[in-house]
Design a protein that fits this description.
Layout lengths: L1 E4 L3 E4 L4 E4 L7 E2 L2 H12 L5 E2 H9 L8 H17 L7 E4 L3 E4 L5 E2 L12 E5 L25 H4 L25 E6 L2 E5 L5 H17 L8 E7 L1 H4 L3 E12 L2 E13 L4
Parallel strand pairs: 11-12
Antiparallel strand pairs: 1-2, 1-8, 2-3, 3-4, 5-7, 6-7, 9-14, 10-11, 12-13, 13-14
Length: 269
């Protein structure tokens, strides 16, 4: 599969070749593992992919030893290659405590010239024994500091609902524990964050949550709960990110999550 990224760089997943559109002689050949990692993220553009999912599918399933250190190193190298090839935007976004996401804000087109992904995007994720949030976003299109959680985090834990985020993909993920804090009840659905905030900041986050769910028609459904995170800069109208994941649980296990991710400037400011 050949991709055109940000109208500036071409990338071919078949052999890991990457080159600037205006300088086809300056070809970079990614290593097999790095190529597999970039292709995996591109196929899930706009979705948050948990670290465990990446380690399992890019390294472990191919008989390779994996570690978070190695993953971070490869992500860093991919970013450098994209920048050196002429892309100024941040293509691969880090989702703290969760994983990574190929930004939906970066235009990506395949051979058929169809745009991959949309934004704000939503993802549905199926989980077996707790696949968990992340992609709180697994097969669809989603979205960060924020918790871009994926079914993984979700399934990971905690009595309330807390847990991991996984980006869309019907794969089973090993849940990871994550500390969450109750923010408020949106109608009959509890809303949790991953940061403990002051009373004043909590109120601002509550108002922002209400603005986002109401403007995007995100309803409170029976048996669901929300995992929510927003950067302080976004709260004050500056560039930042916000993430809301609505998860459904059955028998104390998360079975699906619908994720929403916003990046940029808060529109009401």
């Amino acid at each position: 599969m050949e991709y055109l990224i940000s109208s500036q760089v071409k990338y071919r997943s078949d052999d890991g070749a990457m080159w600037p559109v205006r300088d086809e002689d300056s070809v970079i050949i990614l290593t097999i593992t790095m190529n597999r990692l970039l292709a995996y993220l591109l196929e899930r553009r706009g979705q948050v992919v948990t670290r465990d999912e990446l380690l399992n599918n890019v390294w472990d399933s191919h008989g390779l030893r994996s570690s978070n250190h190695t993953l971070n190193k490869y992500i860093s190298e991919i970013r450098k290659h994209l920048v050196s090839s002429g892309i100024k935007e941040e293509c691969v976004t880090t989702v703290p405590r969760i994983g990574f996401m190929f930004s939906s804000e970066v235009d990506v087109r395949g051979l058929t010239d169809k745009r991959l992904g949309q934004e704000p995007s939503t993802d549905y994720i199926n989980t077996e024994s707790g696949k968990a949030l992340q992609r709180l976003a697994a097969g669809a299109k989603y979205k960060a500091t924020f918790i871009t959680l994926a079914l993984m985090l979700i399934a990971a834990s905690v009595t309330l609902i807390i847990a991991g985020i996984h980006l869309p993909t019907p794969k089973t993920e090993k849940p990871q524990d994550i500390q969450t804090y109750f923010l408020f009840d949106y109608k009959t659905c509890p809303v949790y964050t991953i940061q403990k905030n002051s009373v004043s900041l909590s109120e601002q986050k509550r108002k922002m949550f209400l603005e986002l769910v109401e403007s995007n028609n995100i309803d409170c459904l029976k048996g669901t709960s929300f995992l929510y995170q927003v950067s302080e800069s976004y709260l004050y109208g500056n560039k930042g990110r916000a993430f809301i994941s609505r998860c459904t649980a059955k028998n104390n296990k998360y079975i699906s999550c619908l994720n929403n991710y916003w990046s940029g400037y808060e529109s009401s400011q």
